[in-house]
Amino acid sequence: MDMTLSKRGDYVMRSAIALARAFERGESRKIREVVEETEVPRTFASQILADLVRADLASSKAGRDGGYRLRRSPSEISVLEVVEAAEGPLRAERCALGAGPCRWDEVCPLHETWSAATSALRDLLAATTLAEVAARDASLAEGTYAVPTDAHRSHPTVTAVADVVQVERGANEVVPLLERLGGRVAELVCSAYLAAPSAPAGTGRRLRPEGGLAATAAGEPGEALRFLLGWQLVDGERTRRFDGELVVSPVDDERCEVRLDGAWRQAGDGALSAAALERQAHGVARGFLRLLAGEVEGSSGVRRRPGGRPAPARGEAAPRRAAPAEATRG
Fold this sequence. Notes:
330 residues, alpha+beta, Arc Repressor Mutant, subunit A, Alpha-D-Glucose-1,6-Bisphosphate, Chain A, domain 4, two-stranded antiparallel sheet
């Protein structure tokens, strides 16, 4: 028996979560932004958001400063309201035994049990707020949510990633170089993914990389500086995503360390086992850092030193830096 939402219910719930995140920041969401955040098909997005408007859960405003916004705080909207906005009233429309024979007039032997079960489901959905679901969604994205014992997926979807590389250049030189390099993150990640042993055959013909790097507020001189880092690789029906940060820490006037920390997630077909997912995540992270160090050290005016190779990962000998693989865009 399938107890999942219909595809429309799935899309409406995802869109409501996106609006809930935006509401907490005092923002509205354009259709294209909802599509980017939720992967709801663009052709259906306006219809899906219209369901939330018709249910009086969201409002829409035209114009440059317009968009879609929840009418109430997510903490005041129940999951039941969102589900019914897409699926209609959550109640049994006919006898639980269908059109089969029944000894009673107007009711069947399962009527009371089925009614109680439906009522219990409604009560649970009504008691759960959209804010709670949005908070779980954020924890899942960060890789901090404890996987339930009855999770539907047999494969893990998230693994933590941490690695470090030493760069033969002072932190005061590396930071502006990284800021200028932000737009090339996707290319470097693509090259690292293609070079990883776990990359499926034929990947390069269809890989679509996206990524970016953004500096956070600068700290005091001599302190570590952090960059927000994120990328996504769509490989056919597979999606691999990383969210985390780069931390640049000075070692001395001519050297610094660049540390990567974050969560690597998988989605779509071809899910990997826990061990394979971890190997892939760390392989791509190490390859990315090697390529990043090569880009920074190879920039105009750098003076290379014999020891300028990446610091090895735990239990790993320092590898020789390879030239970047050619990134093929799908």
